[in-house]
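Thread: quick sanity check before group meeting

JM: Hey all, I'm pulling together slides for Thursday and realized we never actually wrote out the predicted structure for the chain we discussed last week. Dropping the sequence here so it's in one place. If anyone has concerns about the input, flag it before I start.
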Amino acid sequence: MAKFSFKLPDIGEGIAEAEIVAWHVKVGDEVEEDQGIADMMTDKATVEMESPVSGTIVELNGEEGDMLAIGSVLAVIETDELPDEEEEAAIAEKVKAQADEQVADEDEAEPEPEPEEEPAPEPEPVEEAELEPAADEPKTRVLASPAVRKRAADLGVDLSQVKPQTGERIRHSDLDQYLTYGATYLTPGASKKRDDEELKVIGLRRKIAENMAASKRHIPHFTYVEEIDVTELEAARADLNATRGERPKLTVLPLIIAAICKTLPEFPMINATYDDEAGRVTRHGAVHLGMATQTDTGLIVPVIKDAQDKNVWQLAMEIARLSDAARSGKAKQEELTGGTLTLTSLGPLGGIATTPVINRPQVAIIGPNKIVERPVIVDGGIEARKLMNLSISCDHRVVDGYDAASYVQALKHLLETPVLIFAD
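JM (edit): ok, ran it. Output follows.
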């Protein structure tokens, strides 16, 4: 018997390390060649590591949540015969090819999901009753490998309740997400009292935690909130949708984005990034707008590149496309980086006001809240008007309160007089 050291392969250009988000084996387990042994998360994707040889696991390097450098030993496998140099090189190439295939999402066994008709940019709140299927509802066919099926059966998990992050095949990482988060939901009729739980913060949730902590630690935030009368904006949106033809249905977000882009040239300090170490502010000419998008695994911010060059219909299509890509795990790295300003909206959950956290190294983030109809005094009379609060959080090192308030007032003027959004 010989011991084979399985080293973490290069699983993406520019990737120096990856996080162990799940082990699928333990010391002493027998494994077959190509059997999944661990899920590793990089900035680009979660990749399932498959054993390159058959044998017995004698050593695992690290716990879930640990970071592992590319090229370091992930696991040691006792095998009948140690590969020679040529065979080991072939194994390394095979492992890298498997990882590249998963990162690129080119697995032909996973059919492309059918596009939703007129997908909304923000998810609707899910009622608790929707979390469990009706008793007489037929189960859909589940795509999963034998290893995933066996693990789910051992854990007593119904795979029809597990939502795949990418494509339609359920992987070990999807099962881990369900076990970590999905099982915490209350089922209809269940007692509302639950036992305490301790969950290790790993994967995307840890990255979100680290980014938010760094943002609050380094950036002196301040938030300004203004009330905006969007009655005319909503009327204009209804008119545009009535004549849209083959174009997508407009939500209010494309109109807000168009107004944001139109007002930014007069307020370049808002569309900027700040390099802490160099002490340098870059005021960007192009508007690369990040769209904070809630997914099953956490908050992801895809970026609408050159938003200032797109009309409201093009913006609507980009919002839908990027939101769908983010939620299905298919967003490309270039679609998740390079933002110069972020828009965050909770849709119907928007509340009265928000104090959003800046997406570092950006210096501002804008948060429209929900639209409500209220009585308003207009010219001495009372009218029903549609009102929306709009929040902006800014980096006080770069943006003064006067500048933030002035920018929001300019944005308010456009949103309350929407014909100006389309004027040259």
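AS: nice. The helical segments are 85-103, 146-155, 172-180, 203-218, 231-242, 252-263, 312-328, 401-416. The domain at 143-189 is CATH 4.10.320 (Dihydrolipoamide Transferase).
JM: adding both to the slides.
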